Give the backbone structure.
Amino acid sequence: DAGVTQSPTHLIKTRGQQVTLRCSPISGHKSVSWYQQVLGQGPQFIFQYYEKEERGRGNFPDRFSARQFPNYSSELNVNALLLGDSALYLCASSWTGGRFEETQYFGPGTRLLVL
Amino acid sequence: AQSVTQLDSHVSVSEGTPVLLRCNYSSSYSPSLFWYVQHPNKGLQLLLKYTSAATLVKGINGFEAEFKKSETSFHLTKPSAHMSDAAEYFCVVITITGTASKLTFGTGTRLQVTL
């Protein structure tokens, strides 16, 4: 079975631009979460979606938004890019996303560089 | 709030010697804890998870961790390090809020394995 896939793998943008990152979960998984990993730090939670509804949001500005589609894939959008948005953006999928024992499976990430 | 603290930012061992990566947790209830590994330029891979069953948890690639409530610890160990174990390791706690779950990561421990 295919794992979590993300596209693109790398992206270079300039300050003020907008970016869209894409994620396809493992087949059968209905929940997708997004994390930001700045160089040298652990990932930080951005969003969680389940059945197209936002379930949770981390401490990120409104420039960050996301959505989930009927096929459970997801997009993360970031507007008005800042240099500090440069990071590895990770997508994770799970069956429901709402249980303690449930594992979240991560994709390889999209590395975003803002110049 | 749930949190984890990784006590060492960098650990260096010789190939064939034991590995110990330390993690303490803070939680107002019995936590679910995970260890993930991240190889350079790769996504996160689950090593093992604790969800209030057996306190000694066995994972992939010979790793195991012991949940000690009295010490609020969840240290990761391996009897004999291999060169391929060199990577960044993250201790993680899951937080459930309503129907949402999020992973809170420690700051990471970089494991170096030398010949």
In short: Chain A touches chain B at residues 4, 33, 35, 41-45, 48, 50, 55-56, 58, 90, 92, 94, 97-109 (CB under 8 Å).
